[in-house]
């Protein structure tokens, strides 16, 4: 289990006439991170700096850039806030429009750290679990009972198919799958087909 953000957010503040705009986004690969960074650079082509940091869960990848700011005053502070918060699969890009007043090394560290903190505070944090995806097929007359049972588990219904029977594609925490399967079989007196599919990492309700 690990934490990430649910959706993109934007925050901004001004420090001694310099404007700092922070963008945060959920990414799961370096390609997605680079694409997001390019989008922000294109949008703010006239900005003085485009500082960024990202952390990916897979392979424990960490990247950052000061983008012209004095060494270790921009990208590293943003990265450190992400690491301290234990947030993964996320990129933060801080756009700076220089206001004419130098902030000094300490001032820059505080400004970029604050930019990242503001972005995280605005974001909705979700927990990602190792989940088991599976397919169940059953008669319509069992639908309401199965829905009630599913309320006892953290799960997500990924797909619904209504034909002669009801087919639900569901993801549930991997640690709960065996117990849920047993309860489904008992509830339906065996009149249900449970097909185990692949495992995946995802946020659940």
**Radius of gyration, Cα only, in angstroms?**
23 Å
> Strand count, sense and closure of the main sheet?
5 strands, antiparallel
The CATH class assignment of the largest domain is: Alpha Beta
CATH fold name of the largest domain, please? Ribosomal Protein S5, domain 2
Q: Give average pLDDT, whole number.
A: 95
Number of E strands:
10
Tag the structure with descriptive keywords:
single chain; 205 residues; alpha+beta; Ribosomal Protein S5, domain 2; Alpha-Beta Plaits; 2 domains; 5-stranded antiparallel β-sheet; 5 helices; 10 strands; 40% strand; elongated
Walk me through what this model shows.
- By secondary structure, the chain is of the alpha+beta class.
- The chain folds into two domains: 2-123, Impact, N-terminal domain (Ribosomal Protein S5, domain 2); 129-203, Alpha-Beta Plaits.
- The chain is 31% helix and 40% strand.
- The chain is built from five helices and ten strands; from the N terminus they run βββαββαβαβαββαβ.
- The chain has helices at residues 30-43, 75-85, 104-122, 143-150, 177-187, and strands spanning 2-5, 9-15, 18-26, 49-56, 61-65, 90-97, 125-138, 155-162, 166-173, 192-203.
- Strands 1, 7, 8, 9 and 10 form a five-stranded antiparallel beta sheet that branches. A five-stranded antiparallel beta sheet has the order 2-3-6-4-5, with helices on both faces.
- A hairpin with a 3-residue loop joins strand 8 and strand 9 (166-173).
- Helix 2 (75-85) crosses helix 3 (104-122) and helix 4 (143-150) packs antiparallel against helix 5.
- It is elongated.
């Amino acid at each position: 289990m690990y934490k990430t953000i649910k959706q993109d957010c934007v925050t901004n503040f001004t420090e001694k006439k310099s404007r700092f705009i922070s963008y945060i986004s959920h990414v799961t690969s370096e390609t997605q991170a680079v694409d997001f960074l390019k989008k922000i650079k294109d949008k703010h082509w006239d900005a003085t700096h485009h500082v960024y940091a990202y952390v990916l869960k897979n392979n424990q990848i960490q990247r950052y850039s000061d983008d012209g700011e004095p060494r270790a005053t921009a990208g590293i502070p943003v990265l450190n806030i992400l690491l301290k918060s234990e947030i993964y699969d996320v990129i933060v890009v801080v756009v700076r429009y220089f206001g004419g007043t130098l902030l000094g090394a300490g001032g820059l560290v505080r400004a970029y750290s604050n930019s990242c903190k503001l972005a995280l505070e605005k974001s909705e944090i979700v927990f990602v679990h190792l989940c088991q995806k599976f397919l169940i097929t059953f008669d319509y007359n069992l639908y309401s009972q199965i829905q009630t049972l599913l309320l006892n588990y953290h799960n997500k219904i990924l797909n619904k198919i209504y034909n002669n029977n009801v087919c639900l594609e569901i993801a549930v925490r991997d640690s709960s799958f065996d117990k849920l399967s047993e309860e489904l079989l008992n509830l339906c007196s065996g009149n249900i087909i449970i097909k185990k599919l692949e495992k995946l990492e995802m946020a659940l309700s």
